[in-house]
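Hi V.,

You were right to ask for the full record rather than a summary. Here it is.
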Amino acid sequence: MANTKKIAPKAACGSKCGSKKIEPVKAPLAKSAPVKAAPVKAAPAKVVAKAAAPVKAAPVKAAPIKAAPVKTAPAKAPAELKEVVFSIYSPASKSVEIGGEFNNWTPAKGKAKKDKDGNWVLKLTLPKGSYQYKILYDGTNWELDQSAPSVLAELGQNSVLNVK
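Predicted structure:
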């Protein structure tokens, strides 16, 4: 099928034409031949270099460098530490450890030492504050310290140590 293009009439005749109908003319479109571009060769560029005379730079005076003042945060006073002594009488126990908020509930960091009378002693240096803890007997039994106040915590009762 040939490509056709509709061409509209150039002049409208209005009421003078009468009953004649003007039909658009269909004319075939002309096909153009493909154009091939010829390769273009660039002429080699000619570079002419002239040796420039050496230029002596004028001495530059460096401005003194000023250090910006260093801003430091005000020094925080070290937290006042207090020595706390846990003394637990349990002559039949083979080990006594204390786990609490002060040692991230790691009883191995709170191993008490047994004296000749059956008292288990642990000395800690803690900042002022309130700490929850429990005593671990023989590595298996967590118990409250009967000589300290206790509090109901998320996972049950804990003993409370107030360092003042």
